[in-house]
Amino acid sequence: MTGASIDGALTRTAVEAELVAKGADFETTVVPVRGDPTTVYRNAPSTLAEVFGRAASWGDTPALSYEDRTVTWSRYADMVGRIAGSLVTQHGVRPGDRVAIAMRNYPEWALAFAAVTSLGAVAVPLNSWWNGEELARSLADCGAGVLFADGERARLVGGQRSGLPALRTVVEAEPQAQSGDLTWQDVIAAGPFIDIGPVAAAISPDDDATIMYTSGTTGQPKGVVATHRAHTTGLMNILYQGALHAAMNRARSEPVRPVRTPAQALVGGPLFHISNLPKLYVAAWRGHHLVFMRRWDARQAVALVDSLGLDGFAGVPTMVRQLLDEAEATGTALPSLRQIGTGGAPTPGNQIDRIRRQFERGVLASTGYGLTETTGPMVGIASSDFFDRPEASGRPFPVSQVRVVSADGSDARPGEVGEAWMRGVTLARGYWNRPDDPLRNAEGWFATGDLVTLDDEGFVRIVDRIKDVVLRGGENVYCAEVEGLLATHPDVIDVGVFGKPHTRLGEEVAAAVQVRTGAAITAAELQRHVAERAAAYKVPSVLTVQTSPLPRNPAGKVLKSELRARLEADAAREEQP
Q: What DSSP character marks residue 143?
């Protein structure tokens, strides 16, 4: 390998050049995508239908496990064909139709997603932490005709059906008292089994595959529309990062724990997140075995990793820290692990060092940076770089472009802080039903709202967020939304919502509220007011009530830095003996 014996940037440059060279697995080429010349992986699968079409080739090896249930790949392929057949023949689902999914990480989540996207219909993963009103708003927005839900979500949506005329059928994918129109067994039995191949052949790589809801700066949910090509390129980015890790370790003579094939990975985070959804199509493409949990529990996670010999795990930094804490408490070194991924929030440097020490740099430890609008990471970092550059989020993938833009619109110099702009094949097509809210500018760039730096070697470091967002345990909480909910209370005059550091969650939601003089409202009552209107993770865990005005700058904006400083000062006084 040319240059492989030279440490540093030359080694990395040589390795990357070989990985994308003509005839290599990750060869790149330029093709027109929606009329624009775009760099793509030549060998990427064309569609998610092609990806999930490989399921049967893995035979009777395990595909999905949940508690005492395991679905093999052959059974997976059979069920996907039957779900697809039922959707087409019994429910009239056609290419481009929206089919929503709202449930815990059951195997049925993965099977429904595979069937929907293999038909050319558009899968709409919904946040399973939302309440009934929040679920209904997104269902109404996307116009889904069919919803796959577990019992809890089916009951929540059931109370909103009068406002959802487009929703024809709710399938309850959980063996309990039926709240939907049909059970999972009804759908499987209705069939008939159809061969996905001929149907999939009609899907274009640039057809819509998913609508994934996020929130904009206004706090209102926005549906991000991503194509098949965006998702399959994300799959290739993940495989590229693994190949780069292995090649870099060989070039630098780093220790490597051999990665078993097929891999067996624990999925602790929700599948409706873009950080976890790709696990489904990587597994189908490579024949991996995914183990789902009902909810995140570090003790159970450690037990599953050790008892099943699982070799992969990825989660937000708080989940990784809890996994390592529990492993240390129970006296296990998690010897089967070969891959550890973290993301969704910056990973603390001390946690990176802890991974390095515990696993002696031999695991594929990685992180990345991206958004729902970019269909996952646009930059990634793994191998020695992950340990040697703890503040970095990664370098752009071969098919990604990243600019750091100063306030005046010029490109920032290396090391200078600016806003991250991104462009590339994984960038979503746009926002659903929002023609006046373009996702990209005229040159095709998406402005992330994040402040970053870019060094001489192309490594991106996240500095801060322009958008007013609290990252609570991997969930984005938009302050404007919570402020709007608090403002609906008749006793509230003014409100400021902001993030407060939290040792376990990363951040927690805090609020300062000005109320009417003489009002008897308490912090607990205001918290209940929000809880009745939004998911539990959006409720401020710290809330102060005052009758004096909140501090504002000359432009009229609440000085949240001052509110945060006051809160920290109050906490410090309370800790004094």
A: T
Task: Determine contact, residues 265/279, Cβ cutoff 8 Å.
Answer: yes
Torsions phi, psi of 171, nearest 5?
Answer: -100, 120
> Cα angle at 64 between 62 and 66, to 5 degrees?
120
Residues 377 and 474 in one domain: no
Decide: 460 and 478 in contact? Cβ < 8 Å: no
Q: Are residues 118 and 209 in the same domain?
A: yes
Q: Is 500 helix (H, G, I), strand (E, B) or coil?
A: strand
Structure tokens at 313: 């795990």
pTM of the model: 0.84
Whether residues 378 and 490 fall in one domain: no
**Per-residue model confidence as pLDDT tens digits over 218-232:** 457 899 999 999 999
Boundary of a domain, candidates 340, 363, 391: 391
DSSP 411: B
Domain count, the chain: 2
Q: What is the DSSP string of 230-282?
A: HHHHHHHHHHHHHHHHHHHHHHTT---PPPPSS-EEEE-S-TTSTTTTHHHHH
Question: How far is residue 296's CA from residue 156's CA, in Å, rounded to a whole number?
Answer: 22
End-to-end CA distance of the chain: 64
Structural domain span for residue 124: 1-391
Is it the case that residue 177 has pLDDT exceeding 60?
no
Angle at 482 between CA 295 and CA 493, to 5 degrees: 150
Say which residues have a Cβ less than 8 Å from residue 126's Cβ, sequence separation at least 6. Answer: 100, 101, 102, 135, 138, 139, 153, 213, 272
H or E element in which residue 171 lies: strand 169-172
Closest CA to 83 of 173, 175, 202: 173
The verdict on residue 460 lying in a domain is: no
Indicate whether 417 belongs to any domain.
no
pLDDT of the residue at 447: 95
Question: Which residues are CB-neighbours of 479 under 8 A, at least 6 positions away?
Answer: 219, 468, 469, 470, 496, 497, 498
Are residues 279 and 387 both part of a single domain?
A: yes
- Strands across the sheet containing 395-396: 69-72, 62-66, 289-292, 264-267, 312-315, 339-342, 364-371, 376-381, 395-396
Give the DSSP H or E segment for 542: strand 542-546
CA distance 390 to 492: 43
Token look-up 């009934």 returns 132
- Tokens 């199509």 belong to residue: 281
Higher pLDDT, 294 or 253: 294
Last residue of a domain, one of 391, 413, 446: 391
| Beta-carbon contacts of residue 386 (< 8 Å; ≥ 6 apart) | 352, 365, 366, 367
CB 395 within 8 Å of CB 461: no
Whether 445 maps to a domain, the answer reads: no
Give the number of residues written for the chain.
577
Of 480 and 205, the one with more pLDDT: 205
Smallest Cα–Cα separation from 48: which of 220, 325, 234? 234
The reply to whether 253 falls in a domain is: yes
Q: What is the pLDDT of residues 263-293, one digit of tens each?
A: 999 999 899 999 999 999 999 999 999 999 9
> Looking at the predicted structure, is the pLDDT value of residue 489 above 80?
yes
**Same domain for 475 and 385:** no
